[in-house]
Write a structure and sequence with these properties.
heterodimer, A: alpha/beta, nine-stranded mixed beta sheet, 41% strand, globular, B: alpha/beta, Rossmann fold, six-stranded mixed beta sheet, four-stranded antiparallel beta sheet, 10 helices
């Protein structure tokens, strides 16, 4: 039997930018197996969590995926058709990891076995000028029985949809999650994607998350993504956006609150392959105690992608001497007719701003909260469906300050 | 009200205040004038509790109690207010919400109930008129994108809402055009009562035409070198500071 040496296999800056990844914790972790007696208890918890989320927000469609399987009894689907595609079983996981660096992709295909394909139905109510946005919530529940989910979303031409992917962990246990998401946006479609974990859930301190997303945009498409990151022992999000059609826009946002000894890695690659596309990245991190966060964002502009506009920003606020923020905004430009800028900051709360607020009678804690509210505000601006999450962040900040 | 007792203080290791003493009684308006770099702004930072100011010796009494160990927020709750020379821009924080937060912090300190947004909106209307601002300023991020004049008006709006016992105006007139200067001064004048005191720091006598001081101090090299009435400001306007700075033979 071959032993998977994660550190040896993945820690390769040249191929996959894992320079700051410390896998020592992952190697030491023990992943528990679920037993039958606990399963009934988990099911009732899942139902209660789902009911809470149904009550809190209005969604057109509600899709519940438990351990990689769509649960039809708990889901409510009107605007989405659900298909499954079996992966080719001839692809051998063990062979692939020896021959390829895409170890997580291979292991996801091996364990998820089939891809869940979500086809957004064409909107019959929409006119040429007006389109009704469909709001779809995916609740991805992990009880520990299957660590891999593979989802593909198809968005038809001129459709408008907002997808919220919420990961829920009803039980306290050590686990590893390896999810993959692919999205295909056809011409003229507008898509919002929010990825979040159950905020405020303290039992994530011994969990390991890998999410790899790839989104393809056709002509005149608009994409907005929001990645809400919080405590996990280790989280890696890899997001790749391909501009395949002209005149499209992708705005990527991320917000991270890391309170404990956690490691967050965000790796983004935006491929400007065609003319007149615009992309922006705004990823903000707040780090406490011994947390560490890495942001590596690469904007790649091909020779033919004239008229590209791109902006990349990664501000980090560090609240402890032991916290670490690594930032690597990068540009790879092969065309002269582009406007690209990038920047990163690592620092603390501005002392002068803090003094200004305090000089009006506001306590230090409240003043810091006000400043942090201001810090996270612009990340949430375009996501009205995330008011609850924004409040959760503020609540969590109140606890940690 | 305020008693600064022979304070020696430095910023970043550089001694700025070299034995400053000043007493302001309730209801008095004091003006501090002086050349650039004389330590006027450090004086305002000293009283409001700026963390950069390190006090080596001396004391500051506010209503008879030392406030040296008080944080800026406690000093503010006790009644000290500084209108900043360069108000800080705070993105993402709504001006009106912050003002209500500060107002409620003060009410809470006094043991009063907090006011809700509706009541606060009613309360603030008159104060907005005082400083010539419209309601849309409340919806904008705190000082962000404000012109220099708007920032100064906003400082005076905060002053008018928070009703402090001691107000320090640190070069509030800089960046204000003549009409704005008049509006801001009128707002300040409305605030003057027998109980409230003001410390007006300025380079120019023109502000003192509008806010008439009871006492004028000339500040140089970290201490008060001359004190007089409002005519001293006129004299400085006419002759400059040189005649005061020359050593007496």
């Amino acid at each position: 039997m071959k032993i998977i040496d994660f550190q040896e296999k993945i820690h390769n800056d040249k191929t996959d930018m894992w320079r700051f990844t410390n896998f020592s914790k992952l190697k030491k972790a023990t992943f528990l197996e679920e037993n039958e007696s606990e399963l009934c208890d988990i099911e009732s918890k899942i139902e209660s969590i789902i009911e809470d989320h149904k009550a809190a927000n209005r969604f057109d469609d509600f899709i519940v995926i438990i351990d990689g399987q769509v649960d039809n009894s708990l889901s409510g689907v009107q605007n989405v058709s659900v298909d499954f595609v079996e992966f080719d079983s001839s692809e051998n996981f063990v062979d692939s990891i020896v021959t390829s660096d895409l170890i997580l992709d291979s292991s996801n295909k091996t364990w998820s076995k089939k891809q869940i394909v979500l086809n957004l139905e064409p909107d019959t109510e929409s006119t040429d000028n007006e389109c009704v946005q469909k709001r779809i919530k995916l609740i991805i529940v992990s009880t520990g029985n299957n660590n891999s989910v593979n989802i593909h979303i198809n968005c038809p031409e001129k459709s408008e949809s907002a997808w919220t992917l919420l990961e829920v962990f009803p039980e306290q246990s050590s686990f590893i999650q390896n999810h993959q998401l692919t999205v295909n946006q056809l011409d003229g479609s507008k898509v919002n994607i929010v990825y979040l974990k159950s905020l405020g859930q303290d039992n994530l301190s011994d969990s390991y998350h890998f999410l790899s997303s790839r989104i393809k945009l056709g002509k005149n498409c608009k994409l907005k993504t929001l990645d809400c990151m919080e405590n996990s022992s280790f989280t890696r999000h890899k997001l790749c956006v391909d501009f395949d059609g002209e005149d499209s826009t992708a705005d990527l946002f991320g917000i991270g609150l890391f309170k404990e000894e956690t490691a967050q890695h965000t790796h983004i690659q935006i491929n400007h392959r065609v003319k007149n596309c615009t992309s922006s990245q705004l990823y903000k991190h707040m780090l406490f105690n011994r947390a560490s966060a890495e942001f590596a964002g690469l904007v790649s502009v091909s020779e033919g992608a004239s008229g590209t506009l791109s902006n990349q920003s990664n501000p980090n606020l560090v609240f402890s001497d032991d916290a670490r923020a690594y930032s690597r905004p990068q540009l790879n430009i092969l065309n002269d007719d582009v406007q690209c800028n990038h920047g990163a900051t690592v620092g603390q709360i501005d002392e002068l701003s803090l003094f200004y607020l305090k000089s009006r009678g506001v306590s230090e804690k409240e003043a810091k909260l006000v400043l942090l509210k201001g810090f996270i505000e612009d990340v949430f601006n375009d996501f009205s469906e995330c008011e609850q999450e924004k409040s959760s962040y503020l609540e969590e900040l109140r606890k940690v300050l | 009200m305020l008693e600064i007792k022979n304070v020696v203080a430095s910023i970043n290791g550089v001694k700025i205040l070299k034995g400053t003493s000043l007493t302001i009684k309730p209801g008095e308006v004091h003006a501090v004038m002086g050349p650039n770099g004389s330590g006027k702004s450090t004086l305002s930072k000293l009283v409001s509790g700026h963390p950069d100011v390190e006090i080596e010796s001396g004391d500051i009494l506010f209503n008879g109690e030392s406030i040296l160990d008080d944080d800026p927020d406690i000093r503010a709750l006790k009644g000290v207010f500084m209108a900043f020379q360069y108000p800080v821009e705070v993105p993402g924080v709504q001006n009106g919400s912050f003002l209500r937060m500060a107002y409620n912090a003060k009410r809470k300190y006094k043991g009063l109930d907090e006011v809700d947004p509706m009541d606060f909106e009613e309360l603030i209307q008159e104060k907005l008129k005082w400083v010539g601002m419209n309601e849309s300023f409340l919806d904008r991020p705190l000082n962000q994108g404000f012109s220099g004049g708007e920032k100064k008006r906003n400082e005076i709006l905060q002053l008018a809402v928070l009703e402090p016992m001691l107000s320090i105006l640190d070069e509030t007139d800089s960046g204000l055009d003549i009409d704005a200067l008049r509006t801001v001064s009128e707002a300040v004048n409305r605030m003057i009562t027998k109980e409230r005191s003001f410390l007006v720091i300025t380079h120019y006598q023109r502000l003192l035409n509008h806010i008439v001081p009871d006492v004028v101090h000339i500040f140089s090299e970290g201490k008060i070198i001359k004190t007089g009435d409002k005519t001293l400001a006129l004299e400085v306007e006419e002759k400059g500071y040189d005649w005061l700075l020359q050593p007496v033979s």
